[in-house]
UniProtKB/TrEMBL annotation:
Organism whose genome encodes this protein: Cardinalis cardinalis (Northern cardinal)
Any Pfam family hit: Peptidase_C14
SUPFAM superfamilies assigned to the protein according to its UniProt record, in alphabetical order: Caspase-like, DEATH domain, Immunoglobulin
Listed GO MF terms: cysteine-type endopeptidase activity
Residue ranges of domain Caspase family p20 in the record: 272-399
InterPro entries: Caspase-like_dom_sf (IPR029030), Caspase-related_regulators (IPR052039), DEATH-like_dom_sf (IPR011029), Ig-like_dom (IPR007110), Ig-like_dom_sf (IPR036179), Ig-like_fold (IPR013783), Ig_sub (IPR003599), Ig_sub2 (IPR003598)
Protein name (record): MALT1 protein
Any GO BP annotation: innate immune response
Superkingdom as given in the UniProt entry: Eukaryota
Matches recorded under PANTHER family: MUCOSA ASSOCIATED LYMPHOID TISSUE LYMPHOMA TRANSLOCATION PROTEIN 1/PARACASPASE, MUCOSA-ASSOCIATED LYMPHOID TISSUE LYMPHOMA TRANSLOCATION PROTEIN 1
Domain Ig-like, residue spans: 58-132, 154-236
Length: 764
């Protein structure tokens, strides 16, 4: 009543009185609800308190998961939500309400094939409502298998229940191959023919409406989810020609006898081999640190290996290491070989030449400190390669500190060159961060299409279209393609090589040398403890060592082991070794493939290893009743693992034309004469790498004064678009930045387009 409220208000006059406590006690004593408390506060016009009581509407805390199950099983889709004063549920299958589907759990028992489809749950509380995410339910019917097999399947385990069947067709028939699998998370599918992934082959049913003899071959389906993978059985699809009565003259028959049947059957280009060199530079000594190259190189490595490329993937190379890596790459090339070079890191472009910046480049850098891409192309042409593909994920702004114009030998006129630049001339490239990892914008779209069986230029055109539809990069970054490709060559082209070819054997041996891992070993100590030592490759120059105690005598109460005493060449930080999870070592990409319950140590920059990799395994253990800790040590020599065998570090290689053509004093001429179209660019008086903490200044690596920008409108926002690699703890001092950085504030507009889980950064 008004009198009660007045009595509560008068408590303010008491020495320790509180109107709020008095009101709450009064309402509590009388068994009132929160609704009545809100009415009282409204009468008091206490808006701040009312704001505290107002509910935020419906919140879904458990989302339904997609599932693939067998017919006859019990399926449960769950959606749990909170809301005030209570919530109500309604399940839908597509647009139709599910009868009796008004509880947080939708149970289908037993489930049948007709229950397959997409489900969603609507949660409402009074006038507010919210929808869950869509959950896909796939119900697979067992074919030609006993129904009792249902009980033998482990719950949630990935299992192929319907295998594809061989087919014998004639030209013009329809090909339908089906593969059914169950599991949780829901399985994904990728169809293969003769070892090559098929475009549009990412569903459980693969169809070709009109087959030709080119569709003949061995098919199978790779089924996988986040936890497991499995291949279906391989089946043969035979395509025969239809019998057609045709009248031939004697002259026609003689022409047929002279024709080459193999040439008629297929005009598809082939490669004698496929080789790729992937370089990602992140940990720059004198320039902003980058993030995206690690993930980009790892994902591209995985995709290219599916296309039968021999891949060498390297992180963080110095100038001499990059030059030596290119030399090794050239050794793998020969006539008809497809060569692919991918680079992600700092870079720039001057007078039509593109330069890749090593991690040890000085500040400022010039062409003498970098690698010229066009010169590498010239040397690839000398090998008479079948296809030369360059994918450059770097900025292409002009370097104001470098006025040298390189006089390179003229490139040969060959119709087999493709350049895919992540951004246009004079522009920057960007990266996107998600769940703690970063992808370059270019790689984000490229990886979705790389396995498609299309001409390289057509594939890159479609990647460019995909990038153009992204509102986050519109007006910021656009893929540029330069090509002289006249034949219909694709990255999916088959490899036809002579196993007796000396060149082929040499290539295989050279590539295999760079990818040899030490054998897993079991170490037995005098006390009876056994330790398993294993090795895994993350990149060609990054290796994970994992240790696990596999046997402990009963009289030993406790024991622990770690590895130490690594060669000084590798500069291993003891604090970063022997971690409980791969992620703690910085190895996020292969963690799912490593055994659990081990200690992990990540060794990077293996190319710096001059001698054999020798380290010590230390064991500490305690006996029951003895306080002292006992120690044992074993020295382990695993030779030179992975890329260390090739000796890329300084002193192992001689200088070559890649170096000498870029040295200071090399002949150059007036830039105006060589470049009739003068490029306009903005040169700021200083660089502001720390003006917005979330911004990377990537692939054109700024040099740096750390003065705070006076008119920066981004206000240190952590979510924005910026050149694709982040500035982290970087403080060299030079008066001007090495490459111009735009100081416009229009990146702030993009902030509104970003979701909370994404942050953007600039890849210079």
């Amino acid at each position: 009543s008004p009198l009660d409220l007045e009595q509560c208000s008068l408590q303010v006059l008491e020495p320790e009185g509180s109107p709020s406590w008095s009101l709450l006690k009064l309402l509590g004593d009388r068994g009132c609800t929160v609704v009545e408390l809100a009415e009282s506060l409204q009468a008091l016009e206490h808006t701040e308190a009312l704001r505290c009581l107002s509910h935020s509407g419906v919140k879904i805390v458990v989302q339904p998961d997609s599932q693939a199950v067998l017919s006859g099983q019990v399926v449960k889709l769950c959606c749990w939500a909170t809301g005030h004063p209570f919530v109500q549920y309604q399940w839908f299958k597509q647009e139709r309400e599910v009868p009796h589907g008004n509880s947080p759990e939708l149970v289908l028992s037993p489930v049948s094939v007709k229950d397959s489809g997409f489900y969603i749950c609507r949660v409402n509380s009074e006038s507010s409502f919210m929808f869950s995410r869509w959950a896909r339910l796939e119900v697979c019917e067992l074919q030609d298998l006993p129904h009792g097999l249902l009980t033998g399947l482990p719950e949630n385990k990935l299992c192929i229940c319907n295998q594809p069947q061989p087919q014998n067709l004639t030209v013009g028939d329809a090909l339908v191959l089906e593969c059914g699998a169950v599991g949780n998370p829901i399985p994904h599918y990728q169809w293969f023919r003769n070892g090559f992934p098929l475009a549009n082959g990412s569903k459980n049913v693969y169809t070709v409406t009109y087959v030709d003899v080119g569709h003949q071959g061995t098919y199978w389906c790779h089924v996988f989810n986040d936890r497991e993978d499995e291949d279906s059985k391989k089946v043969e699809v035979i395509i025969g020609r239809k019998a057609v009565a045709v009248e031939y003259t004697e002259e026609d028959l003689s022409d047929l006898q002279e024709s080459d049947p193999q040439e008629e059957s297929s005009h598809r280009p082939v490669a004698t081999d496929k080789v790729a060199l992937l370089i990602g530079n992140m940990s720059y000594w004198n320039h902003p640190q980058l993030k995206a190259p690690m993930v980009d190189v790892y994902e591209l490595t995985s995709l290219l290996r599916q296309l039968d490329f021999k891949v060498v993937s390297l992180l963080d190379l110095t100038e001499s290491e990059m030059r030596n890596a290119v030399e090794e790459f050239l050794l793998l090339l020969d006539e008809g070989v497809y060569g692919l070079l991918y680079y992600a890191g700092h870079g720039y472009e001057n007078y039509g030449n593109s330069f890749m910046v090593p991690v040890d480049a000085p500040n400022p850098y010039r062409s003498a400190n970098c690698l010229c891409v066009q010169n590498i192309l010239r040397r690839m042409q000398q090998k008479r390669t079948g296809l030369n593909v360059f994918l450059l994920d770097m900025c292409r702004k002009r370097n104001e500190y470098d006025d040298t114009i390189l006089i390179l030998d003229a490139l040969k006129v060959t119709a087999n060159i493709v350049f895919g630049y992540a951004t246009c001339q004079g522009a920057e490239a960007y990266e996107i961060q998600q769940l703690g990892l970063a992808n370059g914008i270019f790689m984000k779209f490229l990886k979705d299409r790389l396995l498609e069986d299309k001409k390289v230029t057509v594939l890159l055109d479609e990647v460019a279209e995909d990038m153009g539809k992204c509102p986050l990069t519109k007006g910021k970054q656009a893929l540029e393609i330069r090509s002289s490709l006249s034949e219909k060559r694709a990255l999916t082209d088959p490899v036809q090589q002579s196993t007796s070819s000396a060149e082929c054997l040499a290539r295989n041996l050279q590539w295999a040398k760079a990818h040899e891992l030490p054998e897993s070993m079991s170490l037995e100590f005098q006390c009876g403890v056994q330790i398993q030592l294993g090795f895994a490759a993350e990149f060609s120059n990054v290796m994970i060592i994992y240790t696990q105690i596999i046997k402990k005598p009963p009289e030993i109460t406790a024991c622990r082991a770690h590895i130490t005493d690594f060669p000084l060449d590798l500069d291993v930080d003891p604090k970063e070794a022997n971690k409980g999870t791969p992620e703690e070592t910085g190895s996020y990409l292969v963690s799912k493939d490593l055994p659990r319950h081990c200690l992990y140590t990540r060794l990077s920059s293996l190319q710096k290893l001059r001698e054999h990799l020798i380290f010590t395994v230390c064991l500490h253990y305690e006996y029951s009743g003895i306080e002292d800790t006992m120690d044992e040590r074993k020295e382990i020599n695993v030779g030179k693992p992975l890329i260390a065998k090739l000796g890329l570090h300084p002193g192992f290689k001689t200088q070559n034309c890649l170096q000498t053509c870029c040295m200071p004093g090399y002949p150059f001429h007036n830039p105006v004469e060589s470049s009739p179209e003068a490029a306009e660019y903005y040169i700021p008086s200083h660089c502001q790498p720390n003006s917005s903490p979330g911004v990377y200044h990537p692939t054109c690596a700024c040099s740096n004064s750390i003065a705070q920008a006076e008119a920066c409108s981004c206000n240190g926002t952590a979510r924005m678009l910026a050149p694709s690699h982040e500035v982290q703890h970087y403080s060299p001092t030079v008066e001007k930045q090495n490459v111009p950085v735009e100081t416009t504030d229009d990146t702030v507009e993009l902030e509104l387009l970003l979701s909370d889980s994404l942050s953007f950064s600039e890849q210079q």
